[in-house]
Design goal:
CATH topology of the largest domain in chain B: Cytochrome-c3 Hydrogenase, chain B
Strand order of the largest sheet of chain B: 1-2-3
Helix content of chain B: 40-55%
Largest sheet of chain C: 4 strands, parallel
Strand content of chain B: 5-15%
Structural class of chain C: alpha/beta
Number of helices of chain C: 7
Largest interface: A-B, 84 and 92 residues
Strand order of the largest sheet of chain C: 1-2-3-4
Largest sheet of chain B: 3 strands, antiparallel
Chains: A alpha+beta, B alpha+beta, C alpha/beta
Structural class of chain B: alpha+beta
Strand content of chain C: 5-15%
Radius of gyration of chain C: 21 Å
Number of strands of chain C: 6
Helix content of chain C: 25-40%
Number of helices of chain B: 17
Oligomer: heterotrimer
Distance between the termini of chain B: 22 Å
Number of strands of chain B: 10
CATH superfamily of the largest domain in chain B: Cytochrome-c3 Hydrogenase, chain B
Distance between the termini of chain C: 37 Å
């Protein structure tokens, strides 16, 4: 049925993020509230005035704890060893590159979202996803790094799985992990230059030829 | 273009993309870093076709050790996996896996397409269990959209059926290739024969044998055909007999037992430290299954057991996978019965997100239904515009970051998806279990003979598409 | 009548070219070169349901030195490309390459920094089979067409029907006899890029002779 006859959709309403839902998303489930309280008790909370405490974020019923590179290893070791947290598994270690400068984030009018401009300084965020099997909770530790010369201490002393994961973050984002036993490129060839998953690295690719026309590669198209 | 990078000239100086990075040179395989600085620079790295650093490897330094290169083209390394084994006689002293021979840049490619076409990219990562890749991605997108509870129940049931069927077919391929790598071509023929029956079902429902792009954000792309339940029941009642055939061939087989028992052992602590999940972790005794800890698609309402083993060796993992396939059969039987009772749509009802096409079987195959085409082309301009916009630009997803794990046949497959509020994903990081398991190989294969290394690798079941993405 | 009546039973008359081509086509052993998803379909094709052995592809040889056909099944990444070339060079003549799937033929859906856009940038390809992945029947169709191609290969260049000899010589690069060399026959056809004898394997094509589909 088309949009104007479907009773579930009101024109102008944004997809599934109605005002009431936004409130719900910021609350945490109870087991994560306990985790948050334990972490804040041990490391402090920036929102309550501790300068080198943690920044606590909650979104989509997930807990994210933001810290700095200096306290990272201490925090990871605490999460692994503390009986209330006991995060036996480091599930994932990944990076996201937020390119600095001013960008137009293109949305489209069909769902009613406006086009908006973003402006930020460049940063690379490295996310550590910790999972506790015994307690059944999962949360994220995040570190924000400058994207010019990102450096972090290695987590291989706390979780051995960080070996391959940190090599991947180095390979794709250029984050140097100090004291890593074998910091080499892992997925790209050893002599590759550049860090492919950064936003200033082009997708690469060639023009696709058709009869009488060519289509540019995906990162050069304007739709 | 590719041959230039392996010529004898050192790489060009200056980074073409404006990066002032001083750490693009590789280090030798056994170098350790002093002082926590960036990896040591070498003066003039030289690259030949077969690698550049053979002079620094241990066998040049110590006479008793030999370095042997296994792969990347090898009939038994489960794909394009390269392992540099340091051997003392025939015993492995060290094993360095080198990966990246299948790196496709899928995660970066997805950033340039709208959200729904991302499914077609993501499905090709772990190509033996494509529906799990799709499921993880779609669950993450639905979590970001906040519509997890609005996905219709019939779609949830179909998702459970298709993914559990995929688990069975993946374990069949594991048995087939594992057997072949150990020399049992009978296992290979059996395994691929069983897989064909499951693939026939997939083809009937999705149109393709592999890499289906069937599970889409909001549901599945089309409903199952009318006779699907009977055909699926026929297949699923036959599978336990076929599994029994495998067991008759292999479980008590002295050759199989000799080759698999005690090989590739990882204790529970080692598994957790190395991030190993899935069958290897459960074979070490820890009952960690994402279907139980973070259930998805209503799977907690089905009755099934989480199988664990004790020894943590390759034989325990073999038994575990056969049992898991039987448990999957159990889940599918329950789900098929539920499917018959449940009516309804198979895609989200929110018209701003749901994929607009209605697919049906026509004279030339599966395509848009005739009524739908006549509606958008003839009757309603508004529907045409709506269809066009949603198919070319897609929906926008509110900004945020989520992590959603699913239990793939190999382990915990996690999708860490970041959105910046646009119609394209901002960053999709896939936590693939095979990648982690290949990182656990050095610990698991230390002290084994070369032939056992193959068994150990096979028991982890790495799929190189997932390792390299 | 005639010669057929004089022949005893069990004697086959043919040309050397035809029988050698028939032998090569009928017993072409593939090298195990599965890379990605297409490799699984290739294994299915070799399995019992879509048996490939009935077309002569009896065993998939692990060693390239014993293989005739390299089925490049899957996406070729930048890191893998030199290894593909290495393996191709290790295969002894006669050898053929079948590029299976769209990723091997043209880079497929992965138009990016990591994938070589077509394995024909690295090795010369005889048959392209599209699909993502191609069904086993499609792969078998490609293999059968390749076998047809092999059965029609020419060892020696022949004039086309109705072609004058001058034209033929010019087209195939006839090299006139060298008058300064005494007593040695030096007149010949230059080896041609299409025929097996004259195949130059570099992608850029080093030989100066006119090229033709071989």
């Amino acid at each position: 049925m088309s949009r104007d006859t479907n009773p579930n959709v009101t024109l102008g309403e944004t997809a599934a993020m109605r005002e009431g839902d936004l409130e719900l998303e910021r609350t945490l489930p109870d087991h994560l509230v306990a985790v948050r309280d334990r972490l804040v008790e041990a490391f402090g909370n920036v929102a309550e005035g501790d300068a080198d405490g943690l920044e606590v974020l909650a979104d989509r019923r997930e807990l994210t704890v933001v810290t700095g590179p200096e306290r990272l290893i201490e925090l990871l070791a605490f999460c692994r060893d503390d009986p209330a947290l006991q995060c036996e598994l480091l599930s994932d270690l990944s990076g996201v590159h937020w390119l600095g400068g001013t960008h137009e984030a293109s949305a489209q009018a069909t769902t009613g979202w406006p086009t908006y401009t973003e402006q930020r300084t460049g940063r690379i965020e490295v996310n550590y996803l910790l999972t506790s099997i015994s307690h059944g909770h999962r949360f994220r530790v995040r570190v924000n790094l400058d994207d010019e010369a990102p450096r972090l201490p290695t987590a291989t002393g706390v979780y051995s799985v960080a070996d391959f994961l940190e090599r991947e973050v180095y390979d794709f984002f250029g984050v140097v992990f100090a004291d890593h036993p074998n910091l080499q490129r892992i997925l790209m060839p050893e002599d590759w230059e550049g860090h492919p998953h950064r936003k200033d690295y082009p997708l690469g690719g060639v023009e696709v030829e058709y009869k009488g026309a060519t289509i540019p590669p995906p990162d050069e198209r304007d739709y | 273009m590719s041959s230039d990078q392996h010529s004898d000239q050192p790489p060009e100086s200056g980074a073409p993309w404006g990066e002032e990075e001083s750490v693009t040179e590789p280090t030798s395989a056994v170098a350790t870093h002093e002082g926590g600085d960036a990896p040591a620079r070498r003066a003039e790295p030289e690259y030949t076709l077969v690698g550049g650093d053979w002079e620094e490897l241990p066998d040049a330094v110590e006479d008793d050790l030999m370095v042997l290169n296994m792969g990347p083209q090898h009939p038994s390394t489960h794909g394009v996996l390269r392992m540099r084994l340091t051997l003392d006689g025939e015993t492995v002293v060290d094993n360095e896996p080198i990966i990246g021979y299948l790196h496709t840049g899928i995660e970066k490619n997805v950033e340039f397409r709208p959200w729904v076409p991302g499914v077609t990219f993501v499905t090709r990562m772990d190509y033996l269990s494509p529906l799990f890749n799709e499921l993880g991605y779609c669950l993450a997108v639905e979590k970001l959209l906040g519509v997890t509870d609005e996905v219709p129940e019939r779609a949830q049931i179909i998702r459970v059926i298709m993914t559990e069927l995929n688990r069975i077919s993946s374990h069949m391929v594991w048995l087939a290739t594992g057997g072949m790598e150990l020399g049992s071509t009978t296992a290979m023929i059996f395994g691929f024969r069983e897989r064909e029956t499951v693939l026939d079902l997939f083809e009937q429902v999705t149109g393709l044998r592999m890499n289906h792009a069937y599970i889409r954000p909001g549901g599945v792309s089309q409903d199952v055909p009318e006779d699907f339940v009977e055909r699926a029941n026929t297949v699923v009642t036959e599978i336990p007999n076929r599994l029994q055939e495998f067991e008759d061939l292999l479980t008590e087989n002295p050759i199989w037992i000799e080759r698999l028992k005690g090989v590739g052992v990882l204790t529970a602590e080692q598994c957790l430290d190395l991030g190993v999940t899935g069958p290897p972790l459960r074979s070490a005794g820890i009952p960690y299954d994402v279907r139980v800890t973070d259930p998805y698609c209503g799977i907690e309402t089905y009755d099934f057991d989480v199988i664990t083993g004790e020894d943590g060796d390759a034989y325990a993992r073999y038994l575990l996978r056969i049992e898991e396939a039987r448990q999957s059969v159990r889940i599918i039987e329950q789900a098929l019965e539920r499917l018959q009772r449940t009516e309804g749509p198979v895609m989200l009802q929110d018209q701003k997100i749901a994929w607009p096409a209605q697919l049906a079987l026509g004279p030339d195959g599966i395509g848009n239904a005739q009524e739908y085409i006549s509606k958008i082309m003839g009757q309603s301009m508004e529907s045409l515009i709506h269809h066009f916009k949603l198919v070319t630009e897609g929906f926008t997803v509110p900004a945020g970051q989520v992590y959603v794990p699913v239990e793939s046949p190999r382990g915990e497959l996690g999708y860490h998806v970041t959105s910046n509020g646009t119609n394209k994903p901002y960053r999709v990081k896939v936590r693939d279990p095979s990648f982690i398991h290949v990182g656990a190989l050095p610990t698991a294969t230390r002290g084994l003979l070369i032939a056992d290394v193959i068994v150990a690798v096979a028991s982890f079941d790495p799929v190189m598409g997932g390792v390299d993405r | 009548m005639g010669l057929e009546a004089k022949l005893p039973n069990g004697v086959l008359l043919t040309s050397v070219e035809k029988i050698i081509n028939w032998g090569r086509a009928g017993s072409m052993w593939p090298a195990t070169f599965g890379l990605a998803c297409c490799a699984i379909e290739m294994m299915s094709t070799g399995g019992s349901h879509y048996d490939l052995a009935r077309f002569g592809q009896e065993v998939f040889r692990a060693s390239p030195r014993q293989a005739d056909l390299m089925i490049v099944a899957g996406r070729v990444s930048q890191k893998m490309a030199p290894i593909v070339r290495n393996l191709y060079d290790q295969m002894p003549e006669p050898k053929w390459v079948l590029s299976m799937g769209v990723c091997a033929s043209s880079g497929g859906m992965f138009n990016n920094y990591a994938i070589v856009q077509g394995v024909d940038h690295v090795v010369p390809v005889d048959m392209y089979v599209p699909g993502c992945p191609p069904r086993p029947e499609m792969l078998m169709d490609g293999i059968l067409k390749l076998q047809d191609k092999v059965k029609n290969e020419q060892f020696v260049e022949r004039p086309r029907p109705g072609e004058p000899m001058e034209e033929f010589r010019r087209r195939t690069g006839w090299i006139d006899p060298d008058p300064s060399v005494e007593g040695v026959a030096t007149a010949r056809f230059a080896p041609r890029s299409g025929t097996r004898a004259g195949r130059r394997d570099t992608p850029a094509g080093a030989d100066a002779g006119p090229s033709q589909e071989g």
